């Protein structure tokens, strides 16, 4: 948990992903479509990816990717992000985290 906290600190949007996961790519594209510039950690491409993935699973991320943090808070995976988007609640979250301005 401390590792995840240090990774997401001071960043508006962080997405933990895998380069082969099409759902992760879709969630990243959705967030970018609003003008946000998320920090992406491809767990299959970083040296400590397996360790990060274990920490995400311990936090309750099922499946482990995509795992989206907005404003240093764990928001959820693809289902949660899509639900927020459909309820028009995703943009306000991004604005409050100063990931987007308009």
The CATH superfamily is known as Glutaredoxin
CATH architecture title: 3-Layer(aba) Sandwich
- Give the CA-CA distance, first to last residue: 32 Å
Count helical runs: 5
Count of the domains = 1
Beta strands, count = 4
Strand order of the largest sheet: 2-1-3-4
What does the radius of gyration come to? 13 Å
Alpha-beta content class? alpha+beta
Beta percentage is: 15-25%
Shape: globular
Reported for the largest beta sheet, the result is: 4 strands, mixed
Mean pLDDT: 94
Low-confidence stretches: none
The third-level CATH topology is: Glutaredoxin
Determine the fraction of residues in helical runs and give it as a percent range: 40-55%
Indicate the CATH class: Alpha Beta
Which series of helices and strands comes N to C?
A: HEHEHEEHH
Briefly characterize the structure.
The protein is an alpha+beta fold and 102 residues long. The chain contains five helices and four strands, in the order αβαβαββαα.
Characteristics:
4 strands; single chain; 5 helices; 102 residues; alpha+beta
């Amino acid at each position: 948990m401390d590792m995840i906290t240090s990774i997401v600190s001071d960043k508006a949007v962080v997405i933990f992903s895998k380069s082969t996961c099409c759902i992760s790519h879709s969630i990243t594209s959705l967030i970018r479509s609003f003008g946000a510039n998320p920090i992406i950690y491809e767990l299959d491409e970083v040296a400590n990816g397996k360790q990060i993935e274990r920490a995400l699973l311990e936090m309750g991320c099922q499946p482990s990717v995509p795992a989206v943090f907005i404003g240093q808070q764990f928001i959820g995976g693809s289902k949660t992000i899509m639900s927020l988007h459909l309820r028009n609640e995703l943009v306000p979250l991004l604005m409050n985290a100063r990931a987007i301005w308009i």
